[in-house]
Design goal:
This protein has 221 residues and is an alpha/beta fold. 33% of the residues lie in helices and 27% in strands.
Length: 221
């Protein structure tokens, strides 16, 4: 589902060159649940952003679902992301001025869907994460665990084949973190969603199919 070939990422300024990733070769199979671990600053989030086509590598090739992405325009990349990939972030990235239902609908605004269709899909996504009774609440009225479940609903509302999760349990206590992992595991098992998760938590990583470790921008396991 995801293939990274000889990926390198270098950040340059006028005076400094920083190599964030070096010689990354990684295949993620369809339906796999993969976790990525490593110390802070080792390139985990950079790697996830490249997988999600939010950032481009300095060298190497990224293929998603057997499609090469190197020559796609910004507009084509945005369309590809919207159709194929759902994103979950540690800090939720919800809009506090919008109700829960409206937050979940956001990815569908870039598709040709009616208001009724958007509402139906968003309501169904919120039911999957156990928040059907919070449709009209605002993010400020929710706990951290509930906010992350809203973020998951937003990620899955467009029925993507891939979910990329950057520290999805990082801001949660162990109980709430396990609830979020239960949801992700269920999506992976019942719907075959391919999931790549960055985490610092060994316990959470052990619940996934495979673990990749990074150190100083290189893959060590």
């Amino acid at each position: 589902m995801i293939r990274l070939h000889n990926i390198e990422k270098v950040y340059r300024t006028d005076t400094v060159e920083t190599q964030a990733l070096s010689q990354i070769n990684l295949d993620v199979a369809k339906g796999e649940f993969l976790s990525i671990m490593g110390p802070s600053g080792c390139g985990k989030s950079t790697l996830l952003n490249i997988m999600g086509l939010l950032d481009m590598p300095s060298k190497g090739e990224v293929s998603i679902d057997s499609s090469a992405t190197k020559k796609l325009s910004d507009k084509q990349l945005a369309h590809f992301r919207n159709r194929k990939i759902g994103f979950i972030f540690q800090s939720y990235h919800l809009i506090n001025d919008l109700r829960v239902l409206d937050n979940v609908e956001l990815p569908l605004l870039y598709r040709k869907a009616t208001a009724a269709e958007r509402k139906e899909l968003s309501t169904a996504a919120l039911e999957k994460v156990g928040l059907s009774n919070r449709l009209k609440h605002f993010p400020t009225q929710l706990s951290g665990g509930q906010k992350q479940r809203v973020a998951i609903a937003r990620a899955i509302v467009g029925r993507p084949q891939i979910i990329l999760a950057d520290e999805p349990t990082g801001n949660l206590d162990s109980a709430m973190g396990n609830e979020v992992m239960d949801i992700l595991t269920h999506l992976n098992k019942t719907e075959g969603t391919t999931i790549v998760m960055v985490t610092h938590d060994e316990q959470m990583a052990r619940r996934t199919h495979r673990l990749v470790r990074l150190f100083d921008g290189t893959q060590v396991q």
